[in-house]
Fold these 2 entries.
Entry 1:
Amino acid sequence: MKWLRKPWPDHRAERTLGAVSLLVGVVVLGMIAFVGVRAWPIFAHNGLSWLGSGGSLQTQLANMQATSVNPPAAAFHLRAWPLVYGTLLSTGFAVVLGVAIAVLSSIFIVELAPARLRRVAIPVIRLLASVPSVIYGLIGVLVFVPFVGNHLITASQKASVQSTVELTGAGLGVVVVILTVMITPIMIALICEALLSTPRSWREGAVALGLNPLRAVLAVTLRAIRPAIVAAAVLATARALGEAVMISMASGGSFFTPSLSHGVPIFLFEPFRTLASAIIDFNEGIGAPALSATLYAFAALLLFSAFVLSIAGYLIKLPLRKYQVRA
Amino acid sequence: MNQHRRLRLRLAIAVAAVGVLGAAAAPTIALAAPTISISGATASYPLVSLLAQKYVKLKRGTVKFKIAQGGAQIGINDVASSRVSIGDVSRDPLPTDPKGLVFYPIAKYGICVVTNKSNTLGSLTPSQLVSIFTGKTRNWSQVPGASASGTIDLISRTSVAGVLTSFQTLLLEGKKVSSLASEQSSEGLLRQAVESDPSSIGFLSNYQAALGSLNSVSYNGVACNRSTVASGSYAGIARFYEVTRGPAQSFVASFISWITKSAAAHKIIESQWVPITG
Amino acid sequence: MSVYAPDLDTRPRPSSGRGRRSSPWTWRWGDRLVLLCAWAAGLGLCLIAAAIVLYMGYRGIEYLRPGLLFARPAISTSQSHTGGILDPLIGTLLLTAIGIALAFPLAVASAIWIAEYGRPSWLARIVESSIEIVAGTPDIVLALFGVAIFQLGILAPLSFRAEGGGVYGRSFIAAGAMMSLIALPPLFVATRDGLRAVPTHMREAAFALGKTRIATIRRVLLPSVRSNIATGVTLGVSRIIGDTAIVVLLLGKTLHIETQGSVPAINLLRGTGSTLTSYVYDNSPAGEGAAPQKAYAAAFVLLLFVLALNLLVDKIGSGSLTSSV
């Protein structure tokens, strides 16, 4: 027992702590391995073309369910483009909107708000960031969807697409709005920090040259923190990609691909599905091997994207060190 | 020295506690209350939950249940891969079902066509129903007797639903529901969708149709409710099955035979559904 | 990557006299538009947050009766007899406890190792990157990973075996293990940043007195980063409480907390149950849609938890500002 009571020598402590830390690395490796192995049948059968389109995704997934425990090779046929498209659409719109709103809000918080409002705004932003996604989804599906369905979608709009899709209010528009509200607070935190870290002298120099204070911020500080904005956007993209619960609740759950050819308001009302929301929608079907492999393939794609975004974020923040901007 | 003794004492107590727990755990793990895991149809979930609740009370806690849903096909897949002990299924066995499954019928139910309460559609003929659900008729103005207007919103179930398969076989003359229909993953969701959309039409088990404030549509002039299902006059009568992999064993078999034979179970089934007689 | 809001300098600025600050009325139209948009964005977000809290509060008060908090949920064919939310509430607390208990040693040990030792450097980079990868992984992927792991035969004692040999794979310990991965990054980052912020003169003083590195960590550094660790734990807790995907896939979604086996504490860990989040999901129009009122009530309780945790983070944060290191 003596070795437990006496203070440990440094090398033993270092090795123990190092081993525990390595455990995290092992877990991550395990995650990549398990997800990859389980997803392999889909890649083996389809190559990378399972990301493309072809045939009805609905029938393909139904087939996977129906072939149950001993699926023939043909059951692994998958063309999941509607899901990839839905993911790109929702994430793309939400990030673009979110960056604009986040930059404007950060400027507001750091530069424009009076001190009392600023003291209110910071906890508010933190609160928005920590509201669980299931609450966002609940408000989306119980408030926004009926509102859009009953008040914004006109009967003629419904009738004009009645042979291709049903408009119920749950769809791209609602999801993009809620997703933007979810990811903006994350970006605000990063951009505010970056704004605060740029040297005051730069802005004061601009003001001395005759720019008004707001223009000084826009012209000088904003340009300087461009890498921070991109890093924030990358972080927000990772968050938006992985959002499953809220989208599952408010997107209308359909394999339809919203198309711009229907005109803009209708485009925003059309239902869709993303990779993450498909995983949670079909999670009970994991008993069928073909469907299980499909879900893991989706997860592998999400994992890969998160990985790529992580590396991108790291590379983007490198130039920040040049300006000694903390981000 | 005092510290050493205290530490050694604490360590000894800890080891002894773990040892006692482990020794106690080993045999008791074997004697643990058996758990019956069930998954499958959302249509039979209320019935099976009530039956399980009653069975646990009768057996005074010596049996436990874990009931999940997911749809009839999920139940079949799960029981075929041994993830659960019993699968709830709301359709008749199909030739594509895995081999080796045993279907035990436990109740009859009716599949009702429903519309929103504001739509006072009285009855539909088989051909009208087929043309609506296959997407040929798209507007309420083309349906005589309907007080709704505008585009028909078809609300259907996802492909794993047994009720969908039964509906297609029994009431749609074997045709498939149009892919335009919005797919809900459970009966409750389908009911909610129809309740909130004045121009919608869908199909539910008779229990769910009676639950909400919906307009139940007669099929060929025959109303859809528990008594017409019991008398056999309604066309859309399907069965709930409990499915096991191979013939049911031990406590699973006792549960299933309790459902099919005991008076208490019959009373529960009779409240909203129709027991299988004979 | 720090995701908490910055500590802003709110001291009164030295006044530059009236008329020195340029008035917006003299600006170009484009600048005025940007000014308007910035104000709109900032105020808009505040209003949205207020709207969410007020609406959930309104609905929650409408549907939440104190009795619901202590009544067990029940299966019933009629809406009004579906009972309360006691089991989901206990489930949330239990899952949070398991998640933090598993994450705490892992996170703190890793943070200490990275901040204080960190040799060889390639290993340190691997560990930091791993934690960043875990932080960036969507929770649904972690949940699927959990499903894959806990259905292995070796881990059958952590849930139970169905008739016929399949491993059920869903239990509190399964969900708790994945929740600990969710709570790991905030706790790690908070502890590591706290340790890095401790000025080196404290370490040097301890070394000058003859203490080994591990002894300084244990006796000097860790006590001084207590508030950082507390902040990290609170952030981790709020992430665990709000997570739905892992619960939906890994907790078995039984209405009551069902124990598994008969060893007193372990049967709870091996058992299944539900949490507030999965209860809200199941009762909303996305799950079974059975009881939107109960969904609102449970969501309101959840929001109260989150608000309380946020207040706690604020208090701990301000506490550390006043205590000098």
Entry 2:
Amino acid sequence: MTMPPGLDNLRHIVVLMMENRSFDHMLGSLKAVDPQIDGITGQLSNPDTNGNPVNPQPLAQFQGQLDPDPDHHFPAVDLQIFGGDTSPTRQPNMQGFVKSYFNQQRDVGHSQKIMYYFAQNQLPVLTTLALEFAVFNRWFASIPGPTVCNRAFAHYGTSFGRVDMNPIYVNEPFKSIYDRLINANPKHTAKLYYYDTTSSTMEVANLLQNQPELFGTCDQFLDDCSNGNLPDYAFIEPNYSDHDTDSGEEVANDQHPDHNVQAGELFIASVYNAIKQNPNLWQSTALLVVYDEHGGIYDHVAPPACTPDQFTASTNDTGTGQPFAFDRLGVRVPAILISPWIPKGTVVDRTFDHASIPATITKYFLGDYSPRSPRETSADVFIEPNVAPVDPARNLLSLESPRTDCPDFDV
Amino acid sequence: MTLIHVPRPDVKSAMNPDRPVNALLKAQIQHLHDAEGNLPLRHRTDIYINAIRTEGEAAEYIRRVTEAIDEAHEAAAKRRARPVIKRRRGITIAAAADKGPVAKGPRASGQEKKSALKRGQKT
């Protein structure tokens, strides 16, 4: 039984995780281009604090609009998802975004900007990638909360019971995907590339333990792509701050409000170009561009329930008056899988969250592995394991030969 | 093959190191501050994190601690690479060539030792 050539040629998986933008905000405009993409329609709205319906509009700006930074901590996201309903039988209705943003400045007009989204031509990189490769209609943040715990799901398959931004102290036995790979027999290679030492990494626990082996800078990523030295698994972090360097000013490119969105577009394009410009690497690599959470910005798709994690966040931790069993996903985020083996215009409707990242990497490179968190073991994978038989309905790298018509970005 | 033009932001208007530090950077600073506490003293910064107000100040602290962690790992690697000097068990004493052996008196019995100790005498 032969393997599909896309999977048979796959040697590297790269994940680039950006910051704090929802699916509708970044890719919602594409519904008008491809009806399969679950984006913005004319039937969507949120009530403002006067009870008036506010529709999504293509009026998002690159910078200076979402200031103050929309609240994306657990209590605020609870309001955004459930619209203020705190009853035991409540269901998510995605009606609380404008009310939530109003709480920050008490300005009705300003609060409506949380419903704005980008027109297609404002985001040439992200929208092109979404239309050319595989876009996920149902990729959600792992928890309805902020960055640190959501990124933890991408590294560990769990946030160890945390729903806030405090440091996460890793509790055995769940090891990071990096530890699993570098301690496997035979050993695999993994690298976490941060932008530079001034931006550094959000994954400080691993930085302390494994700095030389696991970490590199963005410049090293570009060199590794050029020289064919990319590891089996690479995770890339953007630049989290405006700062000066010896070679000039570096603009933050993580797209976290209120950082410039165009700077992030450039960064995504540079990562794509670095892989594509090495023909051997391009045919043996799959790149996932994903966002860690929605940043408090509107999305219309209700997050589904999910397998509970073995941890519970207490009432004190959640700040909502209710504990949280990690049994509901966070708000939907943009997620795109890129490879020349993916048919143009692929739209994926299966449900994923960030636990799918360690789930996919583990199953592809290590096969059966334990222990892993309940959330990770139940998460779907975005690349089928390299073991025959492969379900053709699930395999996204399905072409018999690599495409030769993939776009290039002029950066 | 389509070539897509990607507009560049105007750096002057996009860049603002005086921007108030956001929640994400505050969290990163706290995490790195906790990490800094695990470093040997010579690798720690002298920056008071509660005084950090802007993105530029945050960036400087983050850079210093990240580089310090890198340096600490490098120092540890250098120590591991040093040749190990094997130490002998016991102590070699140079023979005192000009001195003869010292004559020893009879050994005191247990009872005699106790009595001598009570009297404050050596045994």
